[in-house]
Amino acid sequence: IAKSQVYSSTDGLLDFDLEASYRPVNLGGIRADLLAYNGQISGPRLEAKPGDTLRLRFTNNLTQPTNLHYHGLHVTPTGNGDNVFLEIPPGEALTYEFTIPSNHPAGTFWYHPHLHGLVAEQIFGGLAGLFIVRGELDEITEIKAAKEEFLFLKDFELDRNGQIVQPSPMARMTGREGSLVTVNGQIKPTFSIATGGLLRLRLVNASTSRFYRLELENHPLYLIATDGGSLSEPVEVRELLLSPGERAEVLVRGEREPGLYRLLNLPYDRGGMGMMGRGMMGRGMRGGSFTQRNPETLATFTYSDSIASLPLPQKLIPVEALPEPDTVRRFEINHGMTPGMGMVFLINGQTFSPNRIDTQVRLNSVEDWEFNNIGVMDHPLHIHVNNFQIISRNGRASPYRAWKDTVVVSPGETVRIRTRFADFTGKTVYHCHIFDHEDLGMMGIMEIT
Ligand code: C2O
Ligand code: CU
Ligand code: CU
User: Fold this and answer.
1) Fewest CB atoms within 10 A around its CB: which of 269, 299, 395, 403?
2) d(CA 111, ligand 2 centre) in Å
């Protein structure tokens, strides 16, 4: 199996070429015609450090326009930075260049296309890759001693000829999912863990719409980082829900009997566009939904050798408490019907317009945003450039502080997040990370001045 290509920075510069093109790819033994970055699924892994400059010469060899977004990075949204308003026509090239601030947190980030209207199709086709920032968190002794693995979760749907299946109108409304679930472009790969050792898993949900409710059999997970980097201390969890766009880093202790342990994706109901929605038809019985009824195996973990027992870290990197907000905003999340247009997805009653500023914020201010989902499906809401903390869910305070850039808001829920707009002015976006919903309108523009 071909190992993923890695580009690391040298002397403060991450300098390389990236190409998007159509490629036949071996996807777990199946020959699939996909969209790939540099011919690989997943795309090359990028590794940088705080303070580094990225120079990425991007070539679009697709037959449709595309662009790049650096999901979760706190970098400029203007110029040739993380600017999602850029559009690279077929056959053309563009050099992205930006600097990662020297105080940027270490963490697991990723990159993918972001051209409104085509995002779901291009990500579902295979375009996405990891972007790792190595820093303070990676220097903690116990974390340094852990064995690192990347788990890039991505689903595909192929027909008999290995072609990507086009979604039905219903699948677009719900958010397209594929039945072929891959981890790093492989089907049910095996990872090894040493008895006594620590495993550090960096998990990314790079799927267009599929949620993952993860459990590793007989092993508690010690959450050490979320979307935006480190927690203050490890938090023990039994399972982990990752909606599209979300990341998590967990430690696993090699403390069980040697054997085979499955990484499971447990059933989860994210709602759907059935006639009645959630409720009237009962959970898991909605038309046009993708409710998964049985746990499925994503990967297996086996014990290899045994090493001197490694402890868990006690303390990680402190997560600061943000000051009280200067402004509180409310966003109502819903779907709707437009005469002739079919289903659309709405933020405060509006679909995306590139010619409208929906939210005007001030640099260096702290804001609370309240997302109220009055629809029938979960929406993982994502904000570019500035990370946030979840303050409360239906009025219940978050159990711990964590940096996030994507948060699931379920039907009937009100989620309050807090963010500080720091360092960068310019226009950027916030949207649902089920990319079919984003393409069908669930995105707004904010301008930071
Ligand atoms: Cu990963 Cu605007 O998205
Ligand atoms: Cu993003
Ligand atoms: Cu959505």
Assistant:
1) 395
2) 8
Q: In this structure, are residues 179 and 265 in contact, taking their beta carbons and an 8 Å threshold?
A: no
What does the DSSP 8-state code read for residue 158? B
322 within domain boundaries: no
Q: pTM to 2 decimals?
A: 0.95
How many separate domains does the chain show?
Answer: 3
DSSP calls for 191-230: EEEEET-EEEEEEEE--SS--EEEEETTB-EEEEEETTEE
Please tell me the number of the ligand nearest to residue 344's CA. 3
Question: Residue 72: nearest ligand to its CA?
Answer: 2
Could you tell me if 220 and 236 lie in one domain? yes
- Mean pLDDT for all residues in the chain: 93
The backbone torsions φ and ψ at residue 293, rounded to the nearest 5 degrees and listed phi first, read -90, -30
User: Which among 133, 155, 176 is the end of a domain?
Assistant: 133
Q: Does residue 285 form part of some domain?
A: yes
Q: Both 170 and 120 in a single domain? A: no
- The answer as to whether 339 is a domain residue is yes
Residue 314 lies in a domain: no
Instruction: List residues, by chain if needed, whose CB lies under 5 Å from ion ligand 2.
Output: 71, 384
- Give me ligand 2 centre to Cα 407, in Å: 12
The length of the chain, given as a count of residues: 449
Question: Is the dihedral angle over the CA atoms 245, 63, 76, 50 positive or is it negative?
Answer: positive
Are the CB atoms for 141 and 200 separated by under 8 Å? no
- Give the pLDDT of residue 3: 57
How close is the Cα of 175 to the center of ligand 3, in Å? Answer: 8
CA distance 8 to 5: 10
Domain housing 410 = 327-448
247 lines ligand 1 (CB under 6 A): no
Tell me which residues of the chain have a pLDDT lower than 50. 1-2, 275-288
Is 421 in the same domain as 302? Answer: no
Expressed in angstroms and rounded, the spacing between residue 439 Cα and the centre of ligand 2 is 14
Q: Are residues 59 and 169 in the same domain?
A: no
Shared domain check, 183 and 254: yes
pLDDT at 57: 98
